Amino acid sequence: MARDTARTRQLLLEAATAEFSEHGLSGARVDRIAERATVNKERIYQYFGSKDGLFDAVVAHELGLATADVPIHGTGPEAIGDYAARLLDHVSAHPELPRLMAWEGLVRGVEVAALERRQAHCLDKVAAVQAALPGVSREAAGGLLLSIVTLTDGWHVFPQLAKLFVGEGESAARARREHVRALATHLAAEIQEASGAGRGDEGSAR
Description:
Mean pLDDT: 91
Distance between the termini: 53 Å
Low-confidence stretches: 200-206
Oligomer: single chain
């Protein structure tokens, strides 16, 4: 029974991820999600409480995958560039995530479900950037992370602009990855330099 419940929840999460990514929170339909999952729609209410609850579960699941798959390794601006390139790899393999983030922001603004848990995750990631760039303040590290997320997510939130500006195909994808890596590395170096850490004064920003 537990295995059947877990499988049903997973089927619903997968179907809902596709539905919410395509149509957003307001445009998504419970009937379509149930049909995609080949599950009775009453299970959605049983397991998740509401369509909003299911959306929250989908967002949490997709963010959890990104957290597990894309840690920050090493130190220095190059480590941040590498992180940005790998984050782009992840969202390219899971384009639903940036679209879900965009829909969440458009519909809910600054309201965030499970605020304390997600805020703790974000602060952990900020701390990881600070560890990679010793001397950089929390505010600067947070701003750098937001810039990186904007860089990586924009390709999938605005696919029409990506096609018009850059084109499609493997060569475009490779160029995109190197572009994101180079920009993130440059931003990290600029921030570290501005903090004084780039000149060896690692304690100045703490």
